[in-house]
Amino acid sequence: MDDINSVNFQFVVENYRDICYNIQNAKIKYNRESDNVDIMAVTKTVAPEIVNAAIDCGITLLGENRVQEFMSKKDFYRPCDVHFIGHLQTNKVKYIINDVKMIQSVDSVKLAEEINRLALKNDRVMDILIEVNIGEELSKSGVSRNNVLPLLNEVSKLPGIRVKGLMAIPPIGSDDDIYISLKDLFEQLKTKNIPGVSMEILSVGMSGDYEKAVKYGSNLVRIGTKLFGARKYMEV
Ligand SMILES: *Cc1c(COP(=O)(O)O)cnc(C)c1O
Fold it and tell me: Residues lining ligand 1, CB < 6 A?
């Protein structure tokens, strides 16, 4: 008899292979062959066994959106790096501070200060990304393009935090301008040489736009649906 798990989760193996193949092709097409593009598996609503199937395929990075859900699942994951990528309330930083390698969704001084405080208390330095609301959408979190530099100047004073780059969620169906504007911002900030800020990671691209994101400089794509299938229940 077939092992029921390997039968059930074969789709993850195939999806992962397709994503790798598509990224490789995008890199060739857009002259980025020598660049590294990391693939994050976004786990929201996905059962830990299925997440583990992705880790078995070669996924080395998970993306978590919700504190509560992460806390209930983390003990069941095989060893793997985790980044927090969802909206994070200041009063919940304490629950994740020791279980994540990076917080990608920092968009205020207040949140940065709490991360800094708890990082120092736990004898560590937390890597973060600044989340940019690149489409200037009222409904979305993230700091607007013009407020990124002022925020970086504040955050760079915090010894418990190291800024590693930018994260963004372009509006669905955005044309290339949005991606170009994000890439320009990233490149501009690189030249500023702000202490404690290194612009190494441009985290952009999800299931619907990762190839386009690779075209415009992404080096970390965050994939949920195309890896695990459509999410079964509504997101909160
Ligand atoms: C859900 C989510 C993703 C993945 O979205 P898919 O379209 O399912 O690939 C990526 N980034 C963030 C911040 C998310 O919340």
Answer: 42, 44, 65, 85-86, 169, 206-208, 222-226
